[in-house]
Design a protein that fits this description.
The protein is mainly alpha-helical and 90 residues long. It has helices at residues 6-16, 26-43, 55-67, 77-80, and strands spanning 70-72, 87-89.
Length: 90
């Protein structure tokens, strides 16, 4: 949510009992890199229609896949191809 304030996010996390993990270890970086490489390869195939994506976007998918059990996102479609086993909460 681009216009969410820090206060709003803190209240939302507290009200929903969500926990944040601000550390990224090597396994997250490796998984994100592998997913980014696979996406780049798919983009090179004809008629795939994938837009260019930044490595940091893959960290946002790799972290919950390896460290928790789901991703809260407003655009599950963005992560579904790269992380098909990750449970998405729209």
């Amino acid at each position: 949510m681009p216009k969410a304030t820090r206060s709003f996010v803190a209240q939302f996390l507290a009200a929903t009992h969500l926990v944040t993990d601000f550390s990224l270890d090597e396994s997250v970086s490796q998984e994100a890199g592998a997913a980014h490489a696979a996406c780049t390869q798919r983009r090179r195939q004809p008629r795939e229609g994938f837009s260019k994506r930044l490595l940091v976007e893959f960290s946002a998918g790799a972290h919950p896949m390896l460290k928790v059990d789901r991703l809260l996102t407003s655009d599950a479609r963005r992560y579904r191809v790269a992380f098909p086993k990750l449970l998405m909460i729209p």
